[in-house]
Amino acid sequence: MTTQSLAAPPPDSGLEQITGPSTNGIIQMLRQRRNLFEQARLNEQRYGPVHVLNMFGTKWVAACGPNAAETILMNKAKAFANGPGWSPLIGNFFDRGLMLLDFEEHRHHRTIMQQAFTPTVLKGYLQELQPIVARHIAALPVGSVEDGNPVPIYQHLKKMTLDVALEVFLGAKLPRPEADRINAAFIACLRASGAILRRPLPGSRWSKGVRGRRVLEEFLVERIDHARGSETADLLSVMCHAESGDGHRFSDQDIVDHMIFLLMAAHDTTTTTLANMVYYTAKTPRWQDRARAQSMELNIDLSFEDLSRLTDVELVFKEASRLCPPTPLEPRRAVKDTEVCGYFVPKGTLIFVPTNVNHRRAEIWRDPEIFDPERFTKERAEDKVHRLAWAPFGAGIHKCIGLYFAQYEIKAVMHHLLRGYEWSVPPEYEMRIDISALPAPVDSLPITLSKL
């Protein structure tokens, strides 16, 4: 196999030069999508933990392991920027979302947005989302894989989390066809972000993504004027009225950009995590039973204090998001010459932390391919081996701003689901994940679902 390399390190620096396979980028990406973890292990074995790959028509550096993750995500030397790293992947469709801003601009925008995620506001969101969750869970169909009538649970979860995002964040209860139209626009944007062919050819993922972004912008612009004149507690209204200490408020375009990104993150990454929790508790019924027993001890409507009592749901959540992190990689661009784990990283380098691969490193996780929620208990605490051993929601100043909202929603959904149903999959079933965008089950996760 032929090798490529990045710029040589300065003389006497003691740093190593980054190398990697020079195989055609399309071939490399297809290999990764066919067997991601095996390909990642082979590349690291051959070229070291920091190596260069050809992806999306350019060179990207994979920086593997928790030490590399800490250097890049904590970014103490301010050597890496988020926006120029994410933009080649999602910038056309989620431009100027909070995750794509950097340094002082990021701090300024995050300070304003944080007013929509204070503990008091989050407690209000919890109460608002539960009736929506209850409505969707009660309406779930029952069906059996064995009878040829399985329930594609991913589809139902996605509709529910979108409705939660729309009603809690926008105060908008949409007719099903309109909600489905908005959902399709988000899906188009996400699929375009992972497209290998990145040109707006007719019928291509890219052109569908461009149309999807336009649908989302028009949808939000129609609602901003009303939100600015409203005193409701939904996220859109909060963002319309929030201001910095010097009186600065978001422009309409700021709000559109932030809301598109937040709505995507609030329903798509949450759906991914929920689907994995359903899958693994179907494969290991004892964990489903353990979690259900705790939920049965609580009222159907969760109080804020109840959330901490769902300890088994918490363990399942952590392990499911270890095995399939909702954001599988964290891209950045080097804004100056720097180093990562002894390798020379030239200014302008596109680099990423492969969170999904880091979550399966055998030197950190015992039997890393096995679903084992007890690895997160205080007695074992495998996630405490390194501060970046487990990082499904990022780290540092760009850590997901909606993390706590997502956790509240996930616990509420699982609580209602556990109290109302039991579910299973055939012993031989293995869920296959489409990693061409954010991870999602290829077959929408068909399960046997029955009421208790």
Write the layout of secondary structure elements.
Layout: E1 3-5, E2 19-21, H1 25-34, H2 36-47, E3 50-55, E4 58-63, H3 66-74, E5 80-81, H4 83-90, H5 103-113, H6 119-138, E6 151-152, H7 153-170, H8 176-193, H9 205-228, H10 235-241, H11 252-283, H12 285-296, H13 311-323, E7 330-334, E8 338-340, E9 343-345, E10 350-353, H14 355-358, H15 403-420, E11 421-424, E12 433-434, E13 440-441, E14 446-451
Parallel strand pairs: 4-10
Antiparallel strand pairs: 1-2, 3-4, 5-7, 6-14, 7-10, 8-9, 11-14, 12-13
Helix pairs in contact: 1-2, 6-7, 6-15, 7-11, 8-9, 9-11, 11-12, 11-13, 11-15, 12-13, 12-15
Task: Please tag this protein with its features.
48% helix, alpha+beta, globular, 11% strand
How would you characterize the overall build of this protein?
- This protein has 452 residues and is of the alpha+beta class.
- 48% of the residues lie in helices and 11% in strands.
- The chain has helices at 25-34, 36-47, 66-74, 83-90, 103-113, 119-138, 153-170, 176-193, 205-228, 235-241, 252-283, 285-296, 311-323, 355-358, 403-420, and strands at residues 3-5, 19-21, 50-55, 58-63, 80-81, 151-152, 330-334, 338-340, 343-345, 350-353, 421-424, 433-434, 440-441, 446-451.
- A 5-stranded mixed β-sheet has the order 3-4-10-7-5, sandwiched between helices. Strands 6-14-11 form a 3-stranded antiparallel β-sheet. A two-stranded antiparallel ribbon has the order 1-2.
- A hairpin with a 2-residue loop joins strand 8 and strand 9 (343-345).
- Helix 7 runs antiparallel to helix 11, helix 8 (176-193) crosses helix 9 (205-228) and helix 9 packs across helix 11 (252-283).
- The longest helix is centred in the middle third of the chain and has 32 residues, at 252-283.
- The protein is globular and about 65 Å long.
- The protein starts with a strand and ends with a strand.
- The mean pLDDT is 91.
